[in-house]
Amino acid sequence: MKNIFLSLIVALLTTITFAQTSPEYRAERDKIHDLVHTKLKVDFNFQEQTMNGEEWVTIKSHFYPQEKVILDAKGMLMHKVTLNNQTLSYNYDNNELIIDLPRKYNRNEEFTLYIKYTAQPEKVKQKGSKAITSAKGLYFINPTGLDENKPTQIWTQGETEASSCWFPTIDAPNQKTSQEIYITVPQKFVTLSNGKLEKETNNANGTRTDYWNFTQKHAPYLFFMGIGEYEIVKDTYNNKPVDYYVEKEYAPYAKQIFGKTPEMLQFFSKITGIEYPWNKYAQIVGRDYVSGAMENTTAVIHGENAYQTPGQLIDENIQENTIAHEAFHHWFGDLVTAESWSNLTVNESFANYSEYLWREYKYGKEDADAHLFEDVQGYKNGQNYDKHLVRFNYDDKEDMFDGVSYNKGGAILHMLRNYLDDEAFYAGLNNYLTKNKYGTGEAHQLRLALEEVSGKDLNWFFNQWYFGSGHPKLDISYDFNELRKTVTVNIFQTQAEEFQFPFAIDVFEGTKATRHNVFVKGKDASFTFPYITQPKLIQVNADGVLLCDINENKVLSDYIFQIKHAKYYTHKREALLEVAIKQDNKDAFEAIAEAMNDPFYKIRMLALENINLINKNSKKREIETIKKIANNDPKTLVQATAIETLGKLTDPELKTIFEKALESPSYSVMGKALVALYYIDKPMAIAKSKELPNEVKKIIATPLTRIYLEEKDEGELTFIAGNVMSGMYLSADKKIQSLYKKAYEKISKSNNTEAISNLTDDIVSKGKQYKQYGFDQVGINLLRQMVEMQKKANTVNEIKNIEVIKKAMAKLLE
């Protein structure tokens, strides 16, 4: 499972207070019975949003003889339960189906129950989570076709325990079953499920029945059905089908979006030493999907955020990390599954770290390190410090899907890989996967597998990182002995817990760095190193591996040297931001200017964003450099940043650069150019913006919003309104947040009922989607403020507008 908003949304948690409760102990679910095989026949009532189901579920007692079977089944109507054509009595409480067997069945004595039922997902009461915002299992999208702007689709979402909303099962991750599904749908639809499409049968009533067969074992939460009018774009990996199910308009771009999947499967097969273990790999995009994506075995679903056009893909494929994440789950999560949600780390931490591994392989270490830095910030910005990675005490299983199980867990695996070395780390993963394939795993099994291969004791590592909380907070100081020519690095841990860890320290003599690898034990540690010439810089955590906070005293000259000579992205970034504050100093300004030509594009962007061009006449050389970057940088995102920087100069002589940029295939470049042009030729910029197709306007909504607000263009408020909540709360950029706050206030005071309606719809939608974060209360507060602003504005449509706002409040309070 991947939630693309997880790192952003966790920051909101710091502004919301939750009631504190004492979490319960959550063990692995007892195995009373074992699932063996599940066979389903289903068809759908689109009007009622229900599913007619028949199930043949083969079960056996796990160890002790049993005369009852308890199956999870949520919100269903039960019609019949039989065994060998004998009707069985049962009790059903809308959550569990308790079936009386005709006799006791002993260990390993298999039997098959037949259950006829109706699934009613709209009557399911269980809640979702931060990562998975709804939990009704089966989703009908625009089922009656009334919304002309949205296709009719059906898709399922099983994690954590929502598959039991559409078929009775033992809905626990420590169960494994093979499956067959017969799916009957109108002939205009295609279907997708786990495994192989064995047969398609056209029926006399205009429907078609597709038979999907999955012969291997996997957990019930990984069952999947996807239905809709899709084009199937075909690809292959190692003679296995790799298919992309997309809506027709995105079919030409499907391989640009998903086309690296075969290479990912090849790469992950190589590093794990286990060839991709399933018979196909398909990916489908679902409208209104409740998370970022989900690793259903051989049938991954992505949210519509995956849909991108060439104008976006030329900048970056924002779904690529997610595609890698879900692919790696087919080893960690699908092949070997967390035995309990407490051990979610053996699923999600690996999937998170796979993003780093893929980026390192495909784009280089600096790119991967930048991605890891952003992930770690997502962990640090949330209320995560006191949470253990493996947690047996929590209020709800959904609480496990957070910045610890994902972000911190990935960073911990990076430290573990560094400690063991690549060869031992990957051999250990192979050992873990091989021993537990088609079964379940937990952190202790991972530790034992790595210990067996490496010969190292890892109890200390797992105790502090997997079964402990927090991370080191280090005060660093240096003592130079010029007589002996030594430097002593003092490391003091300020957090309550005491950590031990390997630590890399670089001593720079001139531009040459000598790496010293030490092992820190105890709260207070010191290490002394010799030197020949006075060191220019001491760089601690020099490889960037340790998850920690560091406090040290450095002067401007240290940071300038660090920008130029540090090897790790985070150190360059840290130094650049510190130097940018002091650009009145000539050396500092020149260091920022030089960083605009850094080999890594994110450093170039950071330098462009922070360079100070006040007194532009004295900085003509740098401006010329930025103009060249705007025209020629190999990364369009850097070009866009250069154009934004030039735009701040409001210099008419730059008009030709901005006009040329409007012809760029990159929407990012185009959007920045429109804003830059607006401040030197408003009529042209506005005319150009009005000519844009609606689909392009939606993609570059933020720069257009800036122009329309500055222009006081009341006619565009309706367009702006649909993007306000995402801009205010889901953007990590404070400038964008500020922009959309202005938009919110402008619309709230306006006479434009259509814009107010669009804004209230956006608030209700996001309030429900992120309810687990208290976002519904944020929405209520925003709506109340809108009422007050309408009253103060005393608009012509005040009464009508307030009525619209109050109706939205009622929806959010439902």
Automatic annotation (TrEMBL):
<feature type="signal peptide">
    <location>
        <begin position="1"/>
        <end position="19"/>
    </location>
</feature>
<dbReference type="GO" id="GO:0070006">
    <property type="term" value="F:metalloaminopeptidase activity"/>
</dbReference>
<keyword id="KW-0732">Signal</keyword>
<dbReference type="InterPro" id="IPR045357">
    <property type="entry name" value="Aminopeptidase_N-like_N"/>
</dbReference>
<dbReference type="InterPro" id="IPR011989">
    <property type="entry name" value="ARM-like"/>
</dbReference>
<dbReference type="GO" id="GO:0043171">
    <property type="term" value="P:peptide catabolic process"/>
</dbReference>
<dbReference type="GO" id="GO:0008270">
    <property type="term" value="F:zinc ion binding"/>
</dbReference>
<feature type="domain" description="Peptidase M1 membrane alanine aminopeptidase">
    <location>
        <begin position="260"/>
        <end position="465"/>
    </location>
</feature>
<keyword id="KW-0862">Zinc</keyword>
<dbReference type="GO" id="GO:0005737">
    <property type="term" value="C:cytoplasm"/>
</dbReference>
<dbReference type="InterPro" id="IPR001930">
    <property type="entry name" value="Peptidase_M1"/>
</dbReference>
<dbReference type="GO" id="GO:0006508">
    <property type="term" value="P:proteolysis"/>
</dbReference>
<dbReference type="InterPro" id="IPR027268">
    <property type="entry name" value="Peptidase_M4/M1_CTD_sf"/>
</dbReference>
<keyword id="KW-0645">Protease</keyword>
<dbReference type="Pfam" id="PF17900">
    <property type="entry name" value="Peptidase_M1_N"/>
</dbReference>
<keyword id="KW-0482">Metalloprotease</keyword>
<dbReference type="InterPro" id="IPR050344">
    <property type="entry name" value="Peptidase_M1_aminopeptidases"/>
</dbReference>
<keyword id="KW-0378">Hydrolase</keyword>
<dbReference type="GO" id="GO:0005615">
    <property type="term" value="C:extracellular space"/>
</dbReference>
<dbReference type="GO" id="GO:0042277">
    <property type="term" value="F:peptide binding"/>
</dbReference>
<comment type="similarity">
    <text>Belongs to the peptidase M1 family.</text>
</comment>
<dbReference type="InterPro" id="IPR016024">
    <property type="entry name" value="ARM-type_fold"/>
</dbReference>
<dbReference type="Pfam" id="PF01433">
    <property type="entry name" value="Peptidase_M1"/>
</dbReference>
<keyword id="KW-0479">Metal-binding</keyword>
<dbReference type="InterPro" id="IPR014782">
    <property type="entry name" value="Peptidase_M1_dom"/>
</dbReference>
<keyword id="KW-0031">Aminopeptidase</keyword>
<dbReference type="GO" id="GO:0016020">
    <property type="term" value="C:membrane"/>
</dbReference>
<feature type="domain" description="Aminopeptidase N-like N-terminal">
    <location>
        <begin position="37"/>
        <end position="222"/>
    </location>
</feature>
<protein>
    <recommendedName>
        <fullName>Aminopeptidase N</fullName>
        <ecNumber>3.4.11.2</ecNumber>
    </recommendedName>
</protein>
<dbReference type="InterPro" id="IPR042097">
    <property type="entry name" value="Aminopeptidase_N-like_N_sf"/>
</dbReference>
<dbReference type="GO" id="GO:0016285">
    <property type="term" value="F:alanyl aminopeptidase activity"/>
</dbReference>
